[in-house]
Amino acid sequence: MFAVAGARVVVTGGSGFLGRSVVEELRGAGADVTAPSSAEYDLRQRDRIDALLAEHRPDAVVHLAAVVGGIGANAAAPGRFFYENAVMGIELIEACRVHDVAKVLVAGTVCAYPKFTEVPFREDLLWSGYPEETNAPYGLAKRMLLVQAQAYREQWGCNYVFLLPTNLYGPDDHDDLETSHVIPAMVRRFSEAAASGARRVELWGDGTPTREFLHVRDAARAFRLALERYDAPEPLNIGSGEEISIRELAGMVAELTGFTGTIGWDRSRPNGQPRRRLDVERARDAIGFEATIPLRAGLEEIVASITERRPVTKT
Fold first, then answer.
1. 3.30.43.10, 3.60.15.10, 3.10.450.50, 3.40.50.720: which CATH number matches 8-169+213-242?
2. Would you please indicate which residues are annotated as catalytic (active-site) residues?
3. pLDDT tens profile 202-221
4. CA–CA separation, 127 vs 113, rounded Å?
């Protein structure tokens, strides 16, 4: 067990979407949390990582910093997504070993799983194939951090653990239509269409892929539990265990935003991975984690958040 209360914890990416919730969760549990800015501590530069660890002397590091985005962003910048995600993690994990950080928690991604994986995704299937092509560079960069964490545990006995969170959502996620994830982008598009009186919204793909979504506050609780309770080389899935098709999701978002027009599908655009649903038994057994926030309730929260952030006038 790692005692979170009173511990000095550095959370990289602490100002990001997941990071803000993790920082709040850890502070609520009594940790002394530092969330360094990338402007001050560029994790692509080893000397800045060394400075961060020397100045703050953390008992634990939670590594959430990442270059992330939807299908379009991954397809547009595969080299950047591979290099920056790999180098940040590799340099940080090595620096944590050198600076004798007691516990390191590394965030992976559901995108690391093979494109065609038996559903539900079990952790032992991670190496059974190649990831879906549009986000393979990002997913493979994250896989390398698992290899590193396991190698360091084997050689030096490091308590470094690796989590595989599913698709996250929640209020305050960015909704830029070029780079955002599916839920905030979808909520924004349907909200604006409903307000403007548009009769059609067109989405990528054909609507058949499925996804599993986990509310960011549930995810933050899982990270806190893993920091406290998990000490094993095997990766740990973090998810809800529930699956919904993109078509069904679009219908739910349309209803919640008041859009009553037609939903079209641009089949010339990629679908992404055909199905996603995690096997969440290991997380339940190992750290006592189960998701608590229903998808519909979470979507209602996002609709309210985006409507407040981007007020639109009906025409």
1. 3.40.50.720
2. 138
3. 999 999 999 999 999 999 99
4. 7
